[in-house]
Specification:
alpha+beta; Chloramphenicol Acetyltransferase; 28% helix
């Protein structure tokens, strides 16, 4: 059950009050992460999608960082028990739709349901944003560019506090492969320390993916 954060006891109360008043209260970090082990564990005869594996590992990592589960509710902060994923899916005609991925602790079950969801969105024509739902992380994939920075479209002043994660183009780096990952969070709810811990967890998941 989601609960509200006790702001009176929160050691970040002053930071919360400072940054929630900003016109643009989000900050973004981009980093290239090693994905050689994940690439080896997906694709080809494995039947596993690299994208869905990366998404699942990042959801697992994000759920382990409590501030990534914080959401604004007016002047209060809601703490979700679990957050799920919403991702852009490219269609054959060059447009995209939004898919919704419920987190499952078992990758195999997640992969089966997520694969069906991807096919459903690819075959459709609607955009279908999740109006009013914020127990999510918003995902995008830019597989054509090994970007070093990223900026998102957002509703400023609308109370949006959902983190956004983007995966970029996988590229060779020495004997391995790397992929840029962009993370954007609301500074009233999270700091660079939280984003840094997320990157550490995600890098560890990519290095030793457990995809059962």
């Amino acid at each position: 059950m989601p609960t509200y954060l006790d702001l009176e006891r929160w050691n970040r109360r002053a930071h919360f009050e400072l940054f929630r008043g900003y016109d643009h209260p989000f900050f973004n970090l981009c980093a290239p992460l090693e994905v050689s082990a994940l690439r080896a564990a997906t694709g080809g005869e494995t039947g596993r999608s690299f994208f869905l594996a990366a998404l699942w590992l990042s959801l697992v990592a994000a759920n382990g960082i409590e501030p990534f589960r914080y959401r604004l509710r007016g002047e209060r902060v809601l703490v979700h028990d679990v957050i799920h994923g919403s991702g852009t899916i490219l269609r054959p005609d060059g447009t995209f739709g939004f898919a919704y991925f419920e987190l499952d602790p078992r990758f195999r079950r997640f992969h089966e349901r997520a694969g069906r969801e991807v096919e459903r969105v690819r075959a459709g024509r609607e955009v279908e944003p999740a109006a009013g739902r914020d127990d999510l992380i918003h995902y995008s994939v830019i597989p054509w560019v090994a970007f070093t920075s990223f900026a998102h479209a957002r509703h400023l002043g609308g109370g949006d506090s959902v983190p956004k994660i983007v995966f970029g183009k996988v590229y060779p780096d020495g004997a391995g492969e790397r992929m840029p990952v962009s993370v954007e969070v609301h500074h009233a709810l999270a700091d660079g320390l939280d984003a840094g811990r997320f990157f550490e967890r995600l890098a560890a998941g990519f290095a030793a993916p457990e995809l059962d």
